[in-house]
């Protein structure tokens, strides 16, 4: 791209001729000259753009760069996200989010209507997206970009500000940790990029792959989640890493557990006392993105320019052992030993607070993406079924931060890879557009090859 001196003057001239706002006139000029890098200041045009962020914990209004801010609140990695028309998808997502404890359906409906109307109303102007590197945010980014592509918005009118690290923060949890002054500096770094048509195309393909009824193609042409995870594009440099993490939410061939479930069980098994620093609130649908206190150990703080593209390296999640088991996991009952009830607690273990379990499991995530309410729902599911993997104290109530959690003998066997969670208890879960149901699911994550595999239907 080439710097174009006098760009601001050209924008002003167009404004005088057409009566357009600065942001609109600027966007139109950029759309007609995609190879030009404007030499104007963010203060010249950003205040008139539509700004979109993952939640109001990020002080975008305090930067002085935004007059209009819309918050995109949806936990897309949970619940159904099928390939259906926009109005139907909105209804499906509202139904799912309204099922979270304490969520007001009317408020969720209002927020969805407000964000969708704002997105469409700004189609002739510019957009600035403020997001992070984790799975929660990356799924929101591809939804927004796919919608903008569908509205015919040129890529040059979309600016993405996205970081995964920040200087001075060793355990970076998100933009909400930054002051308004620190946020204000980001547009002048390479954390800020004006998108290209290739970026909109990749986001559209990623959104379609995420919503597809199967996670991979069985034909000769590669398609699905895997190819997106393997794709590298500078403007969307965190997308491949996020899709790699998404594929690991499929039940594994070794134990039927998703990576999140295995980390939760391992955290329960590791009963060394830990401080429960889990936040009282969570990535609740109508609130913000995953709170900073969910933060997993982030990579060492990079310069604020976020110059090192994560996409150039292997996804950080690849580095974690596939089993990801804590060293203190108790041994399961010996095969052939005295009969043990599969719901009996493992000898030598005690109940540990669910809040502490959440903190331990989240600490294993390179990019934090899950809040405590979602994690507690997963713990509830692991304690259910004919062969529960966990015991709860008190039983029969929704899991909260203070709920006691303890591994059962079956849980120890599954965690050791000696039994399969799906075969024992079945599954009923959506991952994007894929609905996993029953005691046999055709799609599994293979730890050995680090790929999704298709299993034949049993006779």
Question: Helices, strands, pairings?
Answer:
Layout: E1 2-4, H1 7-18, H2 22-32, E2 36-38, H3 42-45, E3 50-53, E4 68-71, E5 79-80, H4 86-97, H5 105-121, E6 127-132, H6 135-150, E7 158-163, H7 180-185, E8 192-194, H8 197-211, H9 225-230, H10 239-247, H11 259-269, E9 352-353, H12 354-362, H13 372-382, E10 390-393, E11 404-407, H14 409-415, H15 421-425, E12 427-432, E13 434-438, E14 443-446, E15 451-454
Parallel strand pairs: 1-2, 3-4, 3-6, 5-12, 6-7
Antiparallel strand pairs: 7-8, 9-11, 10-11, 12-13, 14-15
Helix pairs in contact: 1-2, 4-5, 6-8, 11-12
How would you describe this protein?
The protein is of the alpha/beta class and 459 residues long. It has a domain at 2-228. The chain is 33% helix and 13% strand. It has helices spanning 7-18, 22-32, 42-45, 86-97, 105-121, 135-150, 180-185, 197-211, 225-230, 239-247, 259-269, 354-362, 372-382, 409-415, 421-425; strands spanning 2-4, 36-38, 50-53, 68-71, 79-80, 127-132, 158-163, 192-194, 352-353, 390-393, 404-407, 427-432, 434-438, 443-446, 451-454. It has a 5-stranded mixed sheet with strand order 4-3-6-7-8, with helices on one face. β6 (127-132), α6 and β7 (158-163) form a beta-alpha-beta unit. α1 (7-18) crosses α2, α4 packs antiparallel against α5 (105-121) and α11 (259-269) crosses α12. The longest helix has 17 residues, at 105-121.
The radius of gyration over CA amounts to: 23 Å
Average pLDDT, rounded to a whole number, is 83
- pLDDT below 50 for ≥5 consecutive residues: which ranges? 273-340
Strand content: 5-15%
Number of strands: 15
Which descriptor suits the 3D outline? elongated
Distance between the termini: 59 Å
In percent, how helical is the residue content?
A: 25-40%
Largest sheet: 5 strands, mixed
Q: What's the helix count?
A: 15
Strand order of the largest sheet: 4-3-6-7-8
């Amino acid at each position: 791209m080439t710097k174009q001196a006098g760009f601001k003057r050209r924008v002003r001239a167009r404004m005088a001729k057409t009566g357009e706002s600065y942001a609109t006139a600027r966007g139109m000029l950029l759309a007609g000259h995609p190879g030009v890098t404007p030499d104007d200041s963010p203060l010249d045009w950003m205040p008139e753009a539509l700004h979109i962020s993952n939640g109001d914990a990020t002080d975008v209004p305090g930067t002085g760069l935004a007059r209009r801010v819309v918050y995109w609140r949806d936990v897309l990695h949970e619940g159904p996200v099928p390939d259906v028309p926009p109005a139907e998808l909105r209804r499906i997502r509202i139904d799912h989010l309204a099922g979270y404890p304490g969520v007001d359906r009317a408020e969720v409906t209002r927020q969805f209507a407000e964000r969708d109307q704002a997105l469409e109303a700004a189609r002739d102007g510019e957009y600035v997206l403020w997001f992070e590197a984790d799975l929660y945010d990356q799924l929101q980014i591809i939804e927004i970009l796919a919608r903008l592509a569908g509205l015919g918005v040129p890529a040059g009118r979309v600016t993405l500000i996205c970081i995964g690290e920040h200087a001075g923060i060793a355990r970076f949890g998100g933009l909400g940790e930054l002051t308004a002054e620190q946020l204000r500096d980001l547009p002048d770094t390479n954390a800020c990029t004006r998108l290209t048509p290739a970026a909109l195309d990749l986001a559209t393909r990623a959104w379609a792959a995420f919503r597809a009824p199967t996670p991979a193609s069985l034909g000769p042409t590669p398609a699905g989640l895997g190819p997106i995870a393997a794709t590298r594009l500078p403007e969307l440099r965190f997308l491949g890493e996020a899709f790699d993490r998404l594929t690991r939410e499929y039940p594994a061939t070794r134990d039927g557990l998703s990576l999140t479930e295995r980390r939760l069980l391992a955290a329960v098994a590791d009963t060394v006392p830990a401080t429960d620093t889990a936040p009282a609130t969570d990535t609740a649908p109508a609130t913000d993105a995953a709170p900073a206190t969910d933060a997993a150990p982030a990579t060492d703080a990079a310069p604020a320019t976020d110059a090192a593209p994560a996409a150039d390296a292997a996804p950080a999640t690849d580095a974690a052992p596939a089993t990801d088991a804590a060293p203190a996991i108790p041994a399961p009952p010996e095969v052939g030993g005295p009969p043990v009830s599969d719901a009996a607690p493992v000898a030598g273990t005690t109940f540990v607070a669910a809040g502490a379990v959440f903190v331990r499991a989240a600490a294993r995530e390179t990019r934090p993406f899950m809040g405590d309410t979602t994690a507690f729902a997963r713990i509830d599911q692991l304690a259910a079924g004919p062969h529960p993997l966990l015991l709860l104290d008190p039983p029969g109530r929704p899991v909260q931060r203070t709920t006691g959690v303890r591994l059962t003998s079956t849980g120890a066997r599954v965690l050791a890879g000696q039994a399969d969670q799906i075969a024992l208890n079945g599954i009923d879960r959506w991952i994007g557009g894929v609905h996993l149901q029953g005691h046999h699911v055709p799609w599994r994550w293979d730890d050995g090859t680090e790929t999704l595999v298709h299993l034949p239907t049993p006779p």
